[in-house]
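Structure tokens please, single chain.
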Amino acid sequence: MARLSPAEARERTDAGAVLLDVREAGEWAAGHAPQAVHAPLSALAAGAPLPPAAGDRPLVVICRSGVRSREAAALLTARGLDAVDVVGGMTAWRAAGLAVSSGDTPA
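Here you go.
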């Protein structure tokens, strides 16, 4: 399974992939990438479909540290989707100086 740095993830999302944040709602509200789509791993693991905003596009999966995103990317790949994860998650995203939004409700 492919793993991307935050900078590579940003390049891929700029090129049309969806940044899928698999953290829980409280983590999402505390700060997420502005272009991210929210889909908690707990829901995906229970069989929930992807949010419509994810469409039929490649997925770049992110969490807090990279552990859940790797699990989610494996789960989504097993569903036949094109999914990769972000090494280091939002911790690395912030450290790379990439934009973070907070306070809004997950879609």
